[in-house]
Design a protein that fits this description.
The complex is a heterodimer of chains A (667) and B (532). Chain A has 667 residues and is of the alpha+beta class. In chain A, the strands form 9 sheets. In chain A, strands 14-13-10-11-12-15-23-21-20 form a 9-stranded mixed beta sheet, with helices on both faces. The longest helix of chain A has 19 residues, at 463-481. The termini of chain A are far apart. With 532 residues, chain B is of the alpha/beta class. In chain B, a hairpin with a 2-residue loop joins strand 2 and strand 3 (99-106). Classes of the chains: A alpha+beta (667), B alpha/beta (532). Chain A binds chain B through residues 475, 478-479, 482-495, 497-498, 500, 502, 519, 581-585, and chain B through 33, 36-37, 57-58, 60-62, 65-72, 75, 95, 98-100, 245, 248-249, 251-252, 255, 265, 268-269, 272-274, 281, 330-331, 498, 500-501, 503-504, 507-508, 510-511, 514.
């Protein structure tokens, strides 16, 4: 049995928002905080906030946050007596947990044996089956038949969608296994993968468990996380709308199964048992995450618990006391990612100049009955690179009803200022307000049914209107900076002839704005359809006031760097990029050049210089944000130049390959 | 600080009638401006666009800093001539890379951009403006050369075009030629005499003689590219300093050239944030009476064009038919002379001469607001020395070395036009309102004089005098002189630099003043002998 310990200082073997989350509870309790940080995180808030910090030299996770030996050494040097692993990285590494304990430190997590048991997807399923928890049968890759398709290839040691592949044809199975295995090896150091039947749709429902060292297991309500992209959760909530809708004994069956699952491995601490549930009330065990989940705040918001606090209590040997907590009200979490959902979820990087989410009443803690909580890994001015997960922050609403929680979260996100980076904000807003989500019926195929590009298109501020606003603000800005004739009217012409022109890019669209001002009256060469006749009331570099159909609206315009324009209005936000007025031919990329669409590293090269390639043939593969992206030949041709090396880090826009397009055969 | 007050009521019946008359004149002028804007007409503009080319105004627009002002000059040059109004050239003062430049662009849609007499006049006037105000000159060249049928009016005076270019260069004023198309024969000296030359791949064509002429002269077989293509000039002859891939590239390079000129203005405004006038510019439409026989108070105009309507009047109680005083306009200090009741008397003339000398002492630019019917006539005034005093004023205006700008608001007749710095007195800029009228005397007076003289002559010689015929002649003369006194006629002959909408007066003057201040503003104490 565990003796009672007193934790005085906690090292968090993690980064970003979860490190800050753990520190927040520690600070409240007067417990010391120790951060570790990679070179990429030398300016990150988690490092700045800790009482002390130890550097993990290097950039890649393998050199830094995955180096258990360095982490334990850091704890020793900084005088920490406990290690909290957060999520990801070493959090489900049983060996590391053992090493922590062997070093005489308190491991804030379950026993290594429980981690190991649940860590193997194969072994855990058997355990669960034996404990009477419903499971999906495992398949032998060698004998998979057409009838069993589609199947899911999964990394045994995986999580978070890494090393996971959906396979729909028997022929593509070997390739999927190979690439999943490679991804698993690089992410988790274990290439083992397995197959199981893939259920096309369903609801992701999971149960938060908390168990003490004395055999008490709490199942603290469920969460639903059906809105996922590439097996990563986007929106999570508690309680589950599916469970609420079906009612009956579904909740008690789920909670019961979760308690059984935890008990089966003598679980201790915080964990999550994940299920795939259908609309008939059936559910299957997916896996158990033996750590704190990203989405734990929604459970905190409907129970009032501090789950990190409970983790610390249990690690200190305290028992769970009192009745099992239950849920009240509703809470929804949206994960704000640095990614472009309209472009294949392409990860983005850069400087987040400003992050300001209105109505935030709590950070890293439960807000009052009604409010917005922000758990953010970034602050104004944070550099967001490609070394780690693209999640910037979690925005969580707490409200008496689900509809209020959804609407208030959407409003907070819509009116948030997020300057400097492309994020999934518009997608979050559109998803939260989508009829399927509002009805509580959205399942895991939500983003398959609703193309993110289409969802985003309707959301926020009309880019065509935003372009007009940006042009007027930029005109005012240029005039304000003019060294001569500044006080003369903007664009003054005693003989009006040609329109002024400014062009902006919104996503893939170029939006030229042709305008002129005569004695303060705006004239547009073409008024965007559906926007109505616009008249200009005032234009300043940072604010434009327009009137359309008798309604006056104010827009604020922010400039980030030389080229980014962020137009904010009550209707939403639109980010535009200026299109250069002149093309410098010497700065042009050669014809046939293929450039990196995102920053990343070259993980595989499939061609040599001089090779003849077919249209659509993969030329090389870039790994960015844990995903492999193939660079395909747009046309048939010959590889004229191969400009990158294997393993090379490339910036967005780097020319990778120059392809000489095949001449059409002439008779 | 002395703030002007206004008693003008824009909603009054008279003001509205005045404004209506002004708007009708603006409308009439607008029709001619539209002709100038249309250039060679839609057919030629479309053809030009179809060749991937920009029009003269599009080229200018792309060359200018975005949203910066452009003051187009002499847009109605050639009005009243057989040629397309505008002189087949677009010109004006604009800002390129923060530098105020004088831009002259051939309009290739008008007979291939060929030069007619109005083109020559307008171009030479632009060179004069560039030289006087030290404005870098950018020529956007695409011209088929002289309009041959009118060569007698072009060939000899047109030679000054090339002389001016090199004189500008000699004065240290940069000259830049962006060659968009043909610039052949005499036109070849345009790039030849410019400091910086940009040519465009497969577009620029610069040679003394084309293939047919060469064949005729020497029997040599040749082609355009080898005789004068951009590639040849960039690589072999060295006439082109920059080789551009297309029009936008040439303009981009042109902007880079200006950015690297290291050009500095001699001085700037005394404040970067001048306060606007306290009265609406819109009122300016209704101030000048529809019938110019009625005088108006020029302070109502001044109150609507100067910063904060702030005007310190000089000698307000003396010679009150001429208003003089100090103000700022878009932050530039100015002295203003404005006719108040049309006629200039001795006192007004002496006041003007003194005021002009003071402006020269304080190196302050002068603005003349014309509404004068001339110097007073009659025994009393002749005996009082009106000639001496008028001469003092003309002497002062002629020898003053601070920059002058004239704006013809209404009447500008007789020697009053001279004393108020008419065209011949070389104001840096001269603009007309649509209400301006200018001739040696009023049309009616002139017709009356002609009538009386012919009648007196007939009577003296004992010849019969046919009253009906004389009245008909008198009416015809009045009509002719009235028509010739109209601002469009003056504009067509390059006797002004453009007719402006009264509401634009402040900004037009602001641009002109800023351009003027590119060169040093230096007064003089050296005048002709003042006859006391």
């Amino acid at each position: 049995m565990t003796e009672s310990l007193f934790i005085t200082s906690v090292l968090v073997a993690n980064r970003g928002e979860i490190a800050r989350r753990v520190f927040a509870t520690c600070r409240r309790r007067g417990i010391g905080t120790v951060a570790v940080y990679s070179d990429a995180d030398a300016a990150s808030p988690h490092f700045a906030e800790a009482d002390c910090a130890v550097r993990l030299p290097g950039l890649s996770p393998a050199d830094t946050y995955l180096r258990g030996d360095l982490v334990i050494d850091a704890a020793r040097r900084a005088g920490a007596d406990a290690i909290h692993p957060g999520y990801g990285f070493l959090s489900e590494n049983a060996d590391f947990a053992r090493q922590v304990q062997a070093a005489g430190l308190t491991w804030i997590g379950p026993d290594p044996a429980a981690i190991a048991a649940m860590g193997s997807k194969v072994e855990s399923k058997q355990l669960m089956k034996d404990a009477g928890v419903p499971v999906l049968e495992r398949l032998d890759p060698a004998t998979v038949t057409e009838r069993e398709l589609p199947v899911l290839v999964k990394a045994s040691a995986g999580g978070g969608g890494r090393g996971m592949r959906i396979v729909r044809t028997v022929a593509s199975l070997p390739d999927a296994i190979e690439s999943a295995s490679r991804e698993a090896a690089s992410a988790f150091g274990d290439p083992t993968v397995f197959c199981e039947r893939y259920l096309e749709s369903g609801h992701h429902v999971e149960v938060q468990v908390m168990a003490d060292a004395y055999g008490t297991v709490w199942a603290i309500g469920e969460r639903e996380c059906s809105l996922q992209r590439r097996h990563q959760k986007v929106i999570e909530e508690a309680p589950s709308p599916l469970v609420e809708r079906i009612g009956g004994d579904l909740r008690s069956r789920l909670l019961g199964a979760a308690r059984n699952a935890a008990a089966a491995v003598s679980y201790r601490g915080a964990g999550t048992v994940e299920f795939l549930a259908d609309d008939d009330g059936g559910f299957f065990f997916l896996e158990m995450n033996t750590r704190l989940q990203v989405e734990h705040p929604v459970t905190e918001c409907v129970t009032g618990l501090d789950l990190v606090g409970l983790q610390l209590d249990i690690a200190s040997g305290a028992p769970l006391e009192g009745p099992e907590p239950t849920m009240s009200g509703h809470s929804i979490e949206a994960r704000l990612y640095a990614e472009d959902p309209a472009h294949d979820w392409r990860p983005t990087s850069g400087t987040l100049h400003l992050i300001d989410i209105p109505g935030v009443t709590a950070r890293f803690t439960v807000p009052p009955m009604h409010g917005i909580r922000l758990d953010s890994g970034v602050e104004d001015g944070s550099e967001v690179g490609v070394s780690y997960d693209p999640m910037l922050a979690k925005v969580i609403s707490r409200a008496p009803t689900r509809e209020q929680a959804a609407r208030e979260l959407a409003a907070a996100l819509r009116h948030a200022s997020l300057h400097g980076m492309t994020t999934n904000r518009d997608l979050l807003v559109a998803s939260l307000l989508h009829p399927d989500f509002m009805a509580g019926t959205a399942d895991t195929r939500f983003y398959g049914r609703h193309d993110p590009a289409t969802l985003v298109a309707g959301a926020g501020l009309d880019p065509r209107l935003a372009a007009v606003v940006a042009a007027l603000a930029d005109a005012a800005d240029d005039r304000a900076k003019a060294t001569v004739l500044g006080p003369v009217a903007t664009g003054f012409r005693n003989v009006p002839a040609v329109f002024q022109e400014r062009t902006y890019a919104a996503a893939d669209d170029e939006l030229p704005v042709r305008y002129r001002l005569r004695r303060g009256v705006l004239e547009l060469a073409t008024t965007p359809e559906g926007i109505g006749e616009l008249s200009l009331l005032s234009a300043e570099p940072g604010r434009v006031i327009l009137q359309a159909d008798g309604v006056r609206r104010s827009y604020s315009v922010h400039r980030v760097g030389a080229h980014e324009r962020i137009v904010e209005s009550p209707a939403g936000t639109c980010t535009l990029h200026t299109v250069a007025r002149f093309v410098d031919p010497s700065a042009q990329t050669p014809a046939g050049a293929l450039v990196a669409a995102m920053p990343g590293s070259v993980v595989r090269i499939g061609v040599d210089q001089g090779d003849r390639v077919e249209a659509g043939q993969p030329l090389l593969w870039l790994e960015a944000m844990k995903m492999e992206h193939a660079v395909l030949a747009p046309t048939a041709g010959t590889v004229a130049e191969l400009l990158v090396l294997l393993g090379q880090q490339v910036e967005q826009g780097t020319v990778l390959v120059v392809l000489l397009e095949e001449e059409e055969t002439r008779d | 600080m002395t703030r002007l007050h206004s008693t003008f009521d824009p909603s009054g019946a008279e003001a509205r009638a005045n404004a209506q008359a002004m708007c009708e004149q603006l409308e009439e002028i607008g029709q001619q401006v539209a002709l100038a804007l249309a250039g060679g007409g839609p057919q030629y503009v479309d053809r030009h666009h179809a060749r991937g080319k920009l029009t003269a105004r599009e080229r200018i627009q792309l060359l200018l800093d975005r949203d910066s002002p452009f003051l187009e000059l002499a847009s109605l040059a050639g009005y009243g001539s057989p040629y397309t109004v505008g002189g087949s050239v677009v010109a004006g003062v604009g800002v390129v890379e923060g530098v105020e430049c004088l831009l002259v662009a051939n309009d290739p849609t008008v007979r291939g951009g060929s030069s007619n007499p109005a083109t020559v006049k307008k171009t030479l006037r632009m060179h004069e403006i560039a030289l006087q105000n030290r404005l870098p000159l950018i020529s956007l060249v695409e011209s088929g050369g002289a309009d041959l049928p009118s060569q007698k009016d072009i060939f000899i005076p047109g030679g000054a075009t090339f002389r001016n270019l090199t004189r500008l260069s000699a004065a240290g004023i940069p000259t830049i030629a962006l060659v968009f198309g043909n610039s052949t024969a005499g036109g070849a000296y345009l790039p030849g005499l410019s400091d910086h030359v940009v040519m465009i791949e497969e577009r620029s064509k610069v040679f003394l003689a084309g293939p047919p002429l060469v064949k005729a002269a020497t029997g040599e077989e040749s082609d355009d590219e080898s005789l004068g293509g951009a590639s040849m000039h960039a690589r072999i002859s060295g006439l082109a300093d920059y080789y551009a891939l297309d029009e936008q590239d040439a303009i981009r390079i042109g902007r880079r050239i200006v950015a690297r000129l290291n050009w500095r203005k001699a001085s700037g405004p005394v404040t970067d944030a001048p306060k606007p006038p306290r009265f609406a510019a819109e009122d300016l439409l209704g101030i000048v009476p529809a019938d110019l026989k009625n005088p108006f108070d020029p302070r109502e105009v001044i109150a609507r064009i100067v910063d904060d309507s702030d005007f310190d009047e000089f000698k307000p109680l003396y010679g009150s038919s001429l208003v003089t005083g100090w103000a700022q306009l878009h932050g530039f200090p100015v002295g203003i002379l404005a006719n108040a009741r049309g006629v200039l008397f001795s006192a007004e003339s002496q006041k003007a001469a003194q005021f002009i000398q003071l402006a020269n002492r304080s190196n302050t630019a002068l603005i003349f607001l014309h509404n004068t019917t001339g110097y007073m006539v009659g025994k009393e005034y002749e005996q009082g020395g009106i000639i001496k005093h008028g001469s003092m004023m003309i002497n002062a205006v002629s020898n003053s070395t601070v920059p002058h700008i004239s704006v013809l608001l209404g009447n500008s007749y007789g020697a009053g036009h001279y004393g108020m710095c008419g065209r011949a007195y070389e104001p840096r800029f001269l603009f007309s309102w649509p209400s301006a009228r200018s001739s040696v005397m009023g049309a009616q007076q002139l017709a009356d004089v002609t009538y009386s003289v012919s009648k007196a002559s007939a009577l003296a010689q004992g010849k019969p005098f046919d009253e009906d015929t004389a009245q008909a002649v008198r009416r015809a003369i009045q009509a002719q002189i009235s028509a010739e006194a109209m601002p469009m006629v003056l504009s067509g002959l390059l006797y002004d630099d453009g007719i402006i909408d009264p509401r634009d007066t402040r900004d037009v003057l602001g641009i002109a003043l800023s351009a003027i201040h590119t060169a040093p503003v230096e007064g003089t104490s050296s005048f002709g002998v003042f006859r006391m």
